[in-house]
Amino acid sequence: MFWKTFTKGLWRENPVLKLVLGMCPVLAVTTSLENALGMGMASTFVLVCSNTVISTIRNIIPEKVRIPCFIVVIATFVTIVDLVMAAFVPDLHDALGIFIPLIVVNCIILGRAEAFASRHPTMLSIVDGLGMGAGFTLALAALGASREIIGSGTLTLWNELTLLQIPTESPVILLILAPGGFIMLGLLLAGMNHFSAWQARRAGKAIPLPATMDCRTCTLCKWGS
Amino acid sequence: MKDSLKLIGSLTAICIVSGALLAFVYDATAARIEAVAQMRIAAAAAQVLPAHDRIDDAIELEHNNRRYFFSPAYRNEKDLVGYAIQFSTSAGYGGEIRMMLGLDIDGMTTGLVILPGHTETPGLGAKITEESFLEAFRDRPITDTNWRVKKDGGDMDEITAATISSRAVADAVMQVAEAFEAHRSTLREGI
User: Fold this and answer.
1) Element (DSSP H or E) covering residue A48
2) Residues 20-49 of B with CB under 8 A from A
């Protein structure tokens, strides 16, 4: 039960790659692996804390004012993260800028509060927060790492630990600009869809087709055959 | 009536608890956030000013509705070596660009740095942080230099394909020179 709740955030209901939620920070801060990880961890912290508190007090929050209550709880934890990051990791805080306060309006967090934490016991909600947070962080890290490698030709952490250095004079700058975020996210989502189709075919199941596509634009059924 | 009291009561209770929690966290981090800001000014000043061992709180000046922060730096605890001037511009291609210019007591510039946190385009406008662009701003008399970029008839080389960012920095330095000229008498001794 706990394990299933955790893993659904990683893959089956991954907030970025399957539910396509929270696109604003996803596109804006994934210009480097470090920013992506920082944003992922900050969001995970807020998600776990808000899930914990909201599921604990879910029975005393009146139905009619639940959304304002959720938002106050979430905003409190976001402000705590903002202050703590400004004090202890100021460079990362600067790089993420306005997107830290904007975690308040990240629909993944309010979404989990409404859809999960307000209906499930505390322990399970913590696990849900951890799973969703980990899934969010992983998706951000994948985007951040690929954009940094192609767009800057490097992969570094904390400004000094160089994990990878591509010997090139002119990296594809487009990838760390805004359009590059859309392009990389599109490629990642297409890859995910094709992988799911391939998996479904191998298991002999029907392929879940994207709702808004028809056979003129979609080649999913041919994949893996 | 009883129902709405319950609504008001529960939301108020949550707000009070969260307010108290935030007051506590703010209290615990305020000193450190302040210290980080001080450290950053000191680190930037070390880059743009000649050797010094003390920096005082900035003197705030206003000129043409822009604010400038002149921090006096001393050697041997009392000999003024110059000013580290903090200023910013929003004329860049992204958002605000914050800078620090060093100025010695003879009115010569001793260096310019772009402070972290700018959002100029990576690979193009972001080249304003590179030494090849910034070195032209060093060792020039602040009042007798035409700080504009060459495209605008000045002395500063602009960066190819990043004219807007280069111009923003050059024009901002030009305005520092004007502010300095206008407030020369308020700044202490020497200069």
Assistant:
1) helix A33-56
2) 21-22, 25-26, 29, 32-33, 36, 40
Chain A residues with CB inside 8 Å of B14's CB?
Answer: 57, 61, 69, 72-73
pLDDT tier for residue B191 given thresholds of 50, 70 and 90: very low
CA–CA dist B13, A223 (Å, integer)? 56
Amino acid type, A167: P
Across the interface, whether the CB atoms of A75 and B15 are under 8 A apart is answered: no
Backbone φ and ψ for A161, nearest 5 degrees, come out as: -80, 100
B122 has a chain A CB within 8 A of its CB: yes
Tokens of A140: 């951000």
Backbone dihedral angles phi then psi of residue A143, each to the nearest 5 degrees: -65, -45
Q: Is A73 on the interface with B (CB under 8 A)?
A: yes
Dist CA B111 CA B52 (whole Å): 14
Q: How far is CA A46 from CA A31, A78, A113, A131, B16, in A?
A: 22, 6, 11, 13, 19
Q: Of B10, B32, B121, which has the smallest distance from its Cβ to A61's Cβ? A: B10
Model pLDDT, residue B189: 53
Please give the interface size between A and B, counted as residue pairs whose CB atoms are below 8 Å apart. Answer: 63
Closest Cβ–Cβ partner in A75, A84, A151 for B29: A84
Q: In sequence order, what DSSP letters do the residues of B90-113 get, joined into one string? A: S-SSSS-EEEEEEEETTSBEEEEE
First to last CA, chain A: 34
Distance CA A168, CA B148 (A): 33
Is the pLDDT at B25 greater than 90, yes or no? yes
pLDDT at A223: 61
Name the residue with tokens 């800057």.
A152
pLDDT tens for each residue of B90-107: 988 888 899 999 988 888
For chain B, domain boundaries:
1-191
- Are B51 and B74 in contact by the 8 Å Cβ rule? The answer is no
- List CB contacts (< 8 A) between A61 and chain B: 10, 14
pLDDT for B65: 85
Q: In the prediction, which pLDDT does A82 show?
A: 93
Q: Identify the bridge partners of residue A154 per DSSP, sorted by sequence position.
A: A165
